[in-house]
Each structure stands twice: as structure tokens, then as C-alpha cells.
Amino acid sequence: MQDHNNHASCVLSNGQFTMSKNLSCKNQPEASDAQRSASNLVNVMNIDRDDALGIRDQIRAELAYLISSGVLQNGAKLPSCRALARDLKVSVNSVLGAYSRLVDEGTIISKPKSGYYVSLNLNRTQAKADQEINANFPNIVERITRRRLPSKAGCITRPADWPDYQFPFVCNQAASNRFPLAEWRECSRLALNMRDLSNWTGDNQYRDSDTFVEQICSRLLPHRGIVAKPENVLITMGAQQAIYIVAALLRGFGRVVAIEDPGYADARNIFEQTFDEVRFIPVDSEGLVVDERLAGCDLVYVTPNRQMPTVLSMSQNRKRQLLDMAKKEDFLIIEDDYEGDMDFDENSLLPLYSGHSQGRVIYTGSLSKSLAPGLRLGYLVAQESLVQEARALRGMMIRHPPHVIQHTASLFLRFGHHETHRAKMHQIFNERWHVASQVIQELFPDFELQYEYGSTNFFFRSTQGHSAYQIAEAARQRGVIIEPSSVCFSDEKKGEITFRLGISAVPAGNIEQGLRTLRSAIDAL
């Protein structure tokens, strides 16, 4: 729907408009009250037939806005259903349905043989325009940090309308039609019943949903070979919040963190905001290189399951080396189980945290890839003492992720919907991987390729020096979306010839055509 810029320019009370100089609505004194109201309302109501919200609900929302903003005041007479329907060029039933819902909500009332009237009396304070001159404002931004401004930090981006493209080879994003909507709706309905209402409408202080934590411990973590008790688990708004909380807890004067290079850009941005020194450690075919560069570190961040962005897995030997070095140098490890929830390789190595690893590993995971990124459901698993401090720090920011979402997710897990959905997606991704890997080997001999069975992502490095951003733009014009990955490198120039390609959102039948289209875009350069 359009904006409401014109709404505040007129006020309707007892069937009459009070107008300002800039009104787009025109009074018609010769018409009846009902006709006058209908004519005036149609000029300040925005109905969009392409909006995802239905016509009835748009009318309802528009009237609710006009009432709440004071355009329609208490006692104002609304136009008849027939008159408003005529002027809006919609069905009478749509208007009648909107009026009926507003009556049920107590926003308007219906008077027999008289019509509909606003019945909501709101106390409002009129906002005054700020008369200060911007030039006199202090420069707040220069006071924010002595490090890089958060807004200047780089991250992998994709077009907002990527689902509209024919070949969206974005990473870790599933097409919305794959979301188990019916099952989630069922769980949401059960979570919203009266018996459980107090579980999520109250404050709950810093506590998480006991049932959700229980399901994580009994369903999700055993799948990754992890045994944990509820006191070892904290629910977060995605894995990123878990990383930020740990970084904020362990920050301090002279503290040093080591991360993979290339690595997860969002994690690097977090550490650059919180730690005095960030060390960039190269990765090879076995994962993070473990050598003397880790000496003196306080924290090491790794993505051992599917390294971000190269998708290669850390070898068992390298994992042992890292754990031995952690014990020797007395540092902690954040293990981001990247793609762990959707790894379809049954023989994938277990996480570092498996077996607790002398209590030095802090494990983070999420439901982003197996369910939906927009739900923002993540968790960290660590020593009880660390979880206790992490809970207190999280509480200073948001207290806890919404309990209604946690409770819905707990039911989703409890009924086995998550396992069923994940098994279906594993089959789908397995099929897509085999199609993609075969075609990629055939079509891209001029690229150094990195990929592994079990991951839905592929990493490309041009041996001919082609700019990934130029490739991405040329491909986009042909309906193909890929993700340049230079921001994953400490020296972005080294990553200018690299990009990621994901198959999680592209049907198997479209993969070959999409890859051939990408090849033609590269050849055209």
C-alpha cells in the first residue's frame, strides 16, 4: 500500500471534515452526510489490488489507521457500505466485511437505521516540528567507536528481490514454497491456546522456554553427536547473536582473537568491534592452519563443519591439533557449526564440541538453514558458568527471544516435523548436488573449484582473473544470482576473483540451464 502522507491533512468529526491548506480531499456541502463522508474518505484511503493483503483487510487497515491517527475522530459517521464500495470500486461485501471486523473489535459501532460510527476515543499529543538547525547538531557518529564504523563493515549481499530471478544461486536460502507452512501453522495455533498464554505473554525475566531447550537437548544436539543439559544451553536470535554475546563477554584490554582467512564476514565484523587485535589465519584443504600464529590468542573462531566460504571440512587430524593448541596456549574456541543443521552427508565428522573438548569449546548452531533464516532461532552450548553470564548479558539487550516463537518451535520439534522436513530437504539437496557438481566440472575448467558432498554451496576462484562483481552483474542481467565473496578476505583484493554459488533455492530441473546461462555471461565478458 502507499504511504499515508495525506491522512493528517484532514480531520473528520461528526460527519464533517476540517481541512488544511494542502488537502487533496475536497468538501462537497451540497451532498448528504453519507455521500460527503464517502467522497472524502476515498481520497485518503489507499487500496492496492496488487497488495498481498486482501481488499477487505486493506479497507479495515486503512480505516483503523484513519481512526488511530485522528483523521476520523470519535463519533464520526462512516459512509454506508454501498457508498464506500462504489467510490473505492470494490464489492459491497468487502466493505461490509471490514466494517464487521471493526465492530467486533470495538473500533466502530453500528446504529440501527443510522449507520456506522467511530467509537474509539484516543488521547493524542500533537507532535511539533523540530525547529533546530541540523548544522548545530553534534557529530554523534565520530563518537561511536575508535574502530571501523558498523555501517562500513562489509558483508555478503544479494538483491532483495532474489526470489524473483529465474536462477537464484544464493547460498543457504531455501525457496519459500519449501517451508512446512501447514505444520508450523498447526504448532503456532497450539502455542496460542489459552492454557499456554501465560507462558509467553509474561515477562519471564531472562529465562528461555524450558520445552524448547529440552527439545534442543533431546532432538537437535544428539543429531550432531552432542550431549548437553539444559543449563548448558542459551537460546539466541540466530547464531550471530551467540557469537556477539561471547565476543562481548571475552573482550578486554589487549585481548586477541584469531579467525579464518577467508572467513565469515559477519563474525569478523563482530570481533573487529570488540577485540583489540584480530589475527587472520589462513585455511587450507584441511581447515584452519594450526601453527605458532595462534600463540597468545584468547579466542579462536572456526567454522569446521563447512568452512565459510570455501565449504571444505576441517580434517580430524587438524581438529586434534587445534584442541591440543588450545590446551597448550589456554585459549577458548567458538565453533560455528555452519550448515550443520542441513548437512546431508551422513558420514560428516562430528563437531569439536562432541565430547565437550575439555570445556574449551563454545558451540553455536541455529535453525536458519533447516527451517527459515527469518525465524532467527539460534543457540549456544557451553559450560554452565559461561551460559549463566551469557544469559545475563543477553538479558541486558532483549531479555530473551520471543517465547511464543520458542514455544511454537518446541512443538514443531516435539511432533517430529523438523526431522521429517530435514529428511525431505536432504533428499532434495542430494539430488541437486549431484546435478550441479557434474555440470560445474564440465562448464568451468577455468575456475578453481572447492566443494564437498553434504553442502549446498560451491566456491569459485577464477584462474583467468575475472572480477567476481563483473561476473555477478552480467549474470544478474540474464536472470542468474551469485554471491561475490571478496568481503570474506582480510585483503579484499585477494578475493575479487572469487564467488559463492548455492543450489538450495534452485529446483534440480533448472540447475543445468542456470549454470549454462552463467557460463554464457562469463564468456560474454
Q: Could you walk me through the main structural features you see in this protein, from its secondary elements to its overall organization?
A:
- The protein is α/β, with parallel strands linked by helices.
- It has helices spanning 33-42, 55-68, 81-88, 92-105, 181-191, 197-201, 210-223, 238-250, 265-274, 316-329, 384-397, 403-414, 417-443, 468-476, 508-524; strands at residues 10-13, 16-19, 108-111, 115-118, 167-168, 233-236, 256-261, 277-284, 287-288, 299-302, 332-336, 361-366, 378-381, 447-450, 457-462, 480-481, 483-484, 498-502.
- Strands 6-13-12-11-10-7-8-9 form an eight-stranded mixed β-sheet, sandwiched between helices. A four-stranded antiparallel β-sheet has the order 14-15-18-17, covered by helices on one side. Strands 1-2 form a two-stranded antiparallel sheet.
- α10 (316-329) links the parallel β10 (299-302) and β11.
- α7 packs across α12 (403-414).
